[in-house]
Specification:
By secondary structure, the protein is α+β, with helices and mostly antiparallel strands. The protein has 11 helices and 8 strands. Strands 3, 4, 5, 6 and 7 form a 5-stranded antiparallel β-sheet that branches. The protein has a 3-stranded antiparallel β-sheet with strand order 2-1-8. The radius of gyration is 34 Å and the shape is elongated.
């Protein structure tokens, strides 16, 4: 497996919650001397950053950085590690944690994406002098911060469906109408005489002449008649067949439509209410919802980190 493929995999793989900021670029070109692990670069809120950490992160960044000046890249690495230390410190203070099993699972997923076993993947990293733990440490920092920010602002970033729809451009929405109605059928039998049909039809027409309230419809029906009344039905215009939709569209609320002869008898519709709404395809809705949440969360995260940065205790031991 080529190292270029490793980079591409890590660039495209996501492991975080709705708080996904930045892209991981990971490739190390040779280990720093192990003695660096015992040499402290800085202590940030009791979190130790070794010179070895700096060396490793410098090499990670160098692989994908547009800069060629290694000293400039090193400064970027140092700031990255300090930022992560501040975030980790606050996350742990708020009882956030990441297990080694979770980090191992991430490595497993990368291996699978590269069509190799985890053992082969780790060996490939070692063959290229890539520190697996340094890779895990970067994942750990971002996951901890993601969990912490999500937990801290879970109420502040809550969005309901209507709020998301309001933010979407009009040309990406489609309009629909929700009708609430009841159906009434004055029943006839196969053996009904013409006189019975006439009387039944007249009773239906008589009922339709006066306003009828959906809630009290049952009480207004002649008790001696054979009538079937449906409960209140709620349906979108797209869910109704063409014939019924046409009848409902021409109806006025709390007024029965004219009786229509059917196989069962004389049918009428009572329109209770109608409401026009804007809708968005489900896939697009989820896409926008995630986008809005991420934007809002990133803004809150940035503001909160700036506050933490100002109060952080940073002691530099060896800047060389």
């Amino acid at each position: 497996m080529h190292t270029t493929k490793i980079i591409q995999t890590l660039k495209s793989h996501s492991f975080f919650y709705v708080m996904m900021v930045g892209i991981l670029h990971v490739l190390l070109v040779g280990f720093a001397p192990k003695a660096l692990a015992n040499s402290v670069y800085a202590v940030v809120n009791d979190h130790i950053i070794s010179k070895y950490d700096v060396e490793q992160r410098t090499r990670i960044i160098a692989t994908s950085s547009p800069f060629s000046d290694i000293e400039q890249i090193k400064k970027i690495a140092q700031q990255e590690l300090i930022t992560e230390a501040i975030k980790i410190s606050d996350a742990k203070k708020n009882k956030m944690y990441v297990t080694n099993e979770q980090l191992n699972e991430i490595v497993d997923n990368i291996a699978k994406k590269n069509n190799v076993t985890t053992k082969q993947f780790i060996q490939n990293l070692l063959d290229n002098d890539i520190d697996v733990q340094a890779l895990k440490n970067k994942f750990k920092a971002q996951i901890l911060w993601g969990k912490h920010i999500n937990n801290k602002y879970k109420d502040a970033i809550a969005l309901n469906t209507e709020q998301v729809i309001d933010k979407i451009k009009p040309d990406q929405k489609h309009t629909f109408t929700i009708y609430k109605f009841r159906q009434i059928v004055f029943l006839l039998t196969k053996n009904s005489s013409e006189e019975h049909k006439r009387v039944t039809h007249n009773k239906a027409k008589e009922l339709a002449q006066n306003p009828v309230d959906c809630a009290t419809l049952d009480a207004q029906i002649p008790s001696e008649s054979a009538i079937r009344i449906s409960p209140t039905i709620s349906a979108k215009n797209t869910e109704l067949d063409t014939k019924l939709l046409t009848i409902i569209q021409n109806a006025t609320p709390n007024n029965l439509t004219k009786p229509i002869k059917t196989k069962e008898g004389y049918a009428m519709v009572l329109l209770c209410s109608k409401e026009t709404k804007k809708d968005v395809p489900k896939a697009l809705l989820e896409q926008y919802k995630l986008s809005f949440l991420n934007t809002k969360l990133e803004h809150l995260s940035t503001r909160y980190f700036q506050k933490l940065r100002k109060s952080a205790i940073i002691e530099y031991r060896d800047k060389n």
